[in-house]
Each structure stands twice: as C-alpha cells, then as structure tokens.
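[Solved] Which block belongs to which protein?

Original post:
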Amino acid sequence: METKKKILIAIIAIIIIAGCIVVGIKGFNVSLYLREHDTLQYTFEQKFNKDDIISIGNEVFGEKDFEVRTVEVFDDSVYIISETISEEEKQALLEKLSALYQESTDEETNTEQTAENVADTETNETINTDSETTSVVDELVEGTDYNVYHDSKIRLRDLLRPYILPTIISAIIIIVCMIIRYKILKSEKVIKNTLKVIGKSIILLLLLLSIVAILRIPVSTWILPGMMFFVLIYLVINFEMEIRRKDEKAD
C-alpha cells in the first residue's frame, strides 16, 4: 500500500512539474475569445440557426480559426470572432448573412426590400468609386444592425479577479466550520488535519491546471472558475471524510 501511495505521489509530482514547464514555455492554450481578436456583431430581425452561421464562417474563413457566439437575450444577435477579420472577409460575411436573412422572410417582405434596394441604388449612383463596395454591403443589410470592432487580449488574472474574493471567503467559512466540528469531537490534531486537507486541495488545483496546460485544453471563460468551484467541493468532501473517520474512532 505504501509503495502504491509513493508511486501515485511521484506521478502527481511529475505531472505538476511538467505542467509548470509547459506554462513557463508556452503558457496556457487560451481560447480565441481570450486572445487578441476581431469581432463582427450582427443583429437579425428574427431568430436564427447557429449552425447556419457556422457554415457561413467556414465558407468565409476556410481553415482560419473562428468562433460563433450568440447573444441570448433576444436570440437575434450573433458574434463572429476571429484573430483578424479583413475588409474582404467582413464584406463576404455581411453579404452571406444578409442573404440568409432575406431568404428567411416571406415573399411580400422580399418584394418590398427589393424595391427599396433599387431606390437606394439609384440614389447612391453619385457616390465615388472607393465607397461603392461599402454602399452595396450596406444595402444588403438594410433593416439589420452590425458592427466590427477589435478586442485586446484578456489576461487570465483579470478573468479570475471577480471570483478570487468569493472563493477565499467561502474557503475560510468552510475551514472555520470544520475546525469547530473537529474541536467538538475533541480531536488532538485539529491544525494538522486542517492543513492536510488544505494541502490536498491546493495539490488538486495544481494537478488540474497542469493537465490543462500539458494537454493544451483551450482555457475558456468558465474553465478556471469551474476548477475553483470543484476544489471547494473537494475541500468540503475531504473535511467531511476526516470528521467521519474521527466519529468512527470515537465509537
């Protein structure tokens, strides 16, 4: 049993050390949303199918990495995210998105929009050559709202900052409650057992982070807060197991 325990400890230590090396050399494999990127926000006048937007993204970006995120308030807006969105890619996206919107309307609405587009085209004949392409795209997306903007890199510490204080407060409350329970059971090793459980929780967090770094699992907005929550649950379970062992010894 002791041999198996030593082997397990050695494996965990190797994984954590390897994880630290990977983080030091390459860092974490953060998701596209957390890296520096461009975002095209497009708003429809009705609900849409996310798979259709992904298909359009595949056509426009090809092998280039991109993400599609929906705005869940009214289910009528979409974020198309890529490291860079060139002017040509923007125009192609807007043309395809507007065509998708037009195809989903009834015949009467399409007729009205066509008449409006013809009138707009006649009005815009005097626009200079440099702005002709932009005006055509604008006509295609008439009745919709879109915007293209650049986002800077999001640092992981900035992502975790809102969760750090609540996690620390929760951990302190858990530890204090368990120490009180230890004392009620008249445990002679309250501090030792408490530090042991806290140490296990820290090691678990380091192990999870190391696995994420080594396997190059994309770090999204939820994965690190999710790990912190998981470690808190692990902390509670370990304390409860220690207390139950004390109960059994007392009996």
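(Second protein starts here: sequence line, then its structure tokens.)
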Amino acid sequence: MSTRGVAVITGGASGIGEATAKRLAADGFAVAIADVNEPAGMAAAAAIGGGARFYACDVADAASVDAAAARVEKEMGPARVLVTSAGIIPNTEGVMDMDMEAHDRMWAVNYKGTVHCARAFARQMIPHKTGAIVTLGSINSRLPLPIPAYNMGKAAIERLTQILAVELGRHGIRVNSVGPTYVMTPPLRARVQSGQRDLNKIMAVHALDRLPEPADIADGIAFLCSEAARSITGVLLPIDAGFLAAVSYRTYAGGMPWKE
C-alpha cells in the first residue's frame, strides 16, 4: 500500500523510466507508468507489482496526455510526483542536412511532450499545494553538439524547468531536472553494437571510467522527489560521470599534464 502518493513516470516501460518506476515504488509511491509501448509497459507494471499500473499515452498528443491524466486521477488518485522520461534519442547530423520531419517529431515528443505532461499533472497537484516534477534533461544542454534537434530541445527543457519552478513554486510544487550523460540503456547498447556509437570515444570524454546505468539516474530523480530536497527547485542536477568537467579539460590544446 502506498504511503507517499502517486508517482507518474512517462516513458516508464524501459530504460531510465523503468528504473525510476522501480525506485519510486521501492520508496513507497504508487506507480503509474505512461508509455506508448503497451506490451513493455504492462510487463514493467506487472514486474513492479504492489498496485503499479500501466496507462497507454502518447506524450506528443496533448489529448492523449489529458486522457491518461484523468484516468490516473480517477483510478489511483492525484499525482504527487511526475517524472517526464519519455523521449527520442538521435543520431549525429548537421543543421544544414538534418531530416526536418525527424526534427519536428523529436521536438513534439521531447519538448512538447514535457510541456503537455507538466501541464496535465501539475493541475492535479495545485489544489493539494504539494508536488514534485522532475524533467529529463541532458548534460549536453550545456554545450553545442552535432545533434541539433535533441541538443536544442534539451536546452529548452532546462529553461522550461526553471520557468515552471517559479510558476508552480507558490503552489508548493518543486520542479527540477536531471542532466545525464550517455547512459547505458538498451538503445545506447544497441547503437554501440551496431557501430553507430564508438564506446571508446564516449569514455574518452568522461572523468570517471564508467557510464551511468539507468538506476544511477533513478537514484538522482528519487532524491529530487524526496523530502531531503525540499528546498531545491529550478535546478539541473548533472549525473554525468564527470563529462561536463572533463570534456574541455581533456580536449585542451596544450595537452593534459599526464599521459593516459
């Protein structure tokens, strides 16, 4: 039986979202998994147990989000926590030759999907004067990278998070973001295995000799949702294995003071 209320996790059928759903369930939340992948979402909810439920939802479609939000509130109660984990991962491309249809789809899912979900579930939190929202940002929002739609979209999510933190703060709702680096999720592992990503190059621009696992991101999200973070809002928490610190240090033209 939940003692902490309802936690809604979009994109909760796999990867970071699934790990977050498991972690928040372990922390005492009743978990609602919202995802377009019905078989995986139902399997994830069944694996978590304890009353976890799956809700079919396309975050790019505001009507779909509103309908899912209404069902969650009716069947489980108002959301106490929202984690916007649903998103699309890109491949490298340049602005001049990028696929604009894919660009628009990424903005529809990653950015507009975050807006749709924040609006729908914050409305459930406002009357109760409490709540926590965690958006899925990225550490690459701090640097220009050759993944234009994703890069700019994540920068927009960081700014959206700050704006929401101010607008919803007067209602007792905290809004923060996590900024992962590459995370060893099934999609990244598939890209490495197919040759679309070079693991050696990825590791070369991090301070730590490991990449985060989905559970590492879930731990950071759980902290931001907890009472321990009661005075934290409007921030992006890097969970990046030292990427932000290392990327400029390791590429300094004068060289590093030691040899690898």
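Accepted answer:
You had them paired correctly. Confirming on the second one: The first strand starts at residue 6 and ends at 10.
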